[in-house]
Amino acid sequence: MYAIINASGRQYKVKSEEVVDMNRLVGEVGGKVTFDSVAALSGGEGSALNIGTPEVAGATVEAEIVEHFRGKKLIAFKMKRRKGYRRTVGHRQELTKVKITAINA
Fold first, then answer.
1. Cα separation of 83 and 66, whole Å?
2. Per-residue pLDDT averaged across 30-39, rounded?
3. 94 touches 23 (CB < 8 A)
4. I want to staple 4 with a disulfide (CB 3.0 to 4.6 A). Which of 25, 40, 55, 101 is the partner?
5. DSSP state of 56
6. How many domains does the chain have?
7. Range of 56's domain?
8. Integer Cα distance of 98 and 29 in angstroms
9. DSSP codes, 9-20
10. Residues 2-26 pLDDT 10s
11. Cα separation of 65 and 67, whole Å?
12. pLDDT tens-digit profile of 35-81?
């Protein structure tokens, strides 16, 4: 069984007992999070995919926050040839690791 959830502007395909990295969520480590915005829900092997319009009614996904961390450094380099223009800018994304505990239809 898997679900496609909308969380912080992105969509994630999640399964039960899976650990997923997503954008930083509000909450303490060990806290529970519930995702109410479920875009699609699959019952398992051979069953039909239940696609919401825009969300599946009554479906939720429960998760536990495992840790907050920062992702790897991303570098953006801009240059204009023959002009001496070079700019380097980078950042590290704030992320949260969550463990999916239950998918409720």
1. 48
2. 94
3. yes
4. 40
5. -
6. 1
7. 2-104
8. 9
9. TEEEEEETT-EE
10. 999 999 899 999 999 999 999 999 9
11. 6
12. 999 999 987 777 788 898 889 999 999 999 999 999 999 999 999 99
